[in-house]
Give the backbone structure.
Amino acid sequence: MMKRNLAALLVGLLFGLGLLLSGMTDPAKIQNFLDLSGLWDPSLLLVMGGAIAVAAPAFAIAKRRTRSLLDAPMQLPANQQIDRPLILGSLAFGAGWGLAGFCPGPALVSAAAGHVPAWIFVAAMVAGMGLHAWRKRGR
Amino acid sequence: MQLDWAHFTPWQSLGGGLLIGLAAALLILLNGRIAGISGILGGLMMRTPADDRAWRWLFLAGLLLAVPLWRLLAALPQPTITASTPLLIISGVLVGIGTRYAAGCTSGHGVCGIARASPRSLLATASFMLAGFVVVYLLRHSGVGAAA
C-alpha cells in the first residue's frame, strides 16, 4: 500500500513532466493541431504516438496478469459497450477541448504554474465532474 | 492544409509522449490502474472506498509537483491562452461532464485505451477529435468565432 502510493506520486510526477516537455500545456498548440484548415501543428500526434508506443507493450503484459507487480488487482476496464454516454460524452469533451485548448491533465499542470485562466477552467471542469458524480449518486 | 513549421516541436513532443507513455506503463504494471486524468480526478468525487482514494491524491500531487521541479531546472513553457472567461467556463464544464460520461479523456482513452486496442477508446478518441476539429474551425474560420 505504501509502495503503491509512492509509485502513484512518482508516476504522476513523470506524467506532469511529460506534459510540460511535450508542449501540450499550451492551449494554442492544441488548437493549432485541431485547426486543419489553418497552419497545422502536428505535434500532438507525436505525443500520442510516442506515448502509445511505450504503453502498448505494458498493457499487453498487464492483460495476462491478474495482480500488479506491487500486488494490487489488475483493473483493466471491462466495459466494452459502445453506447450513447461514450459518444455524446466524447463529443462534448472534444467541443470543450477545442473551445479553450485545455484537456484535464494539461489544465491541472497549467493551473499549478499559476495561470489564472487555467484556474477558471479547472474550477469549471471540477464543477462539471461534480455534476456527473451528483447525477450518478442520485440514482 | 499547410504545416506550421514555426510551432512544430517534433523532438520535444515525441520525448514528452515517451514520458507520458512510461508513466501509463508504470501505473498499470505497478498499481494495476489506468493513467487517465479525468478518471483519477473524477473518481475522488464518487463514493470510492477509502483505500482507493490516497493513490489518486498522490498521483495528482505528483502531476502538480512537476511544475516546481521543472522550474528548478529550466524556465516553464509560456502558454498562449486566448479563450475569454465565459468561454473558459463553458469549455471547462463541457470537458468535466463529457470526460466523465465518456469515462475517459485524452490520457485514458487517447493514450491508455488506444495502447490496449480498445474499440471503445478508439471511437471515443475519434469522437473528441472530430468535435475538436469542428469547434476550432467554427472558432477560427467562421463568423461564430468572432462573436465568441
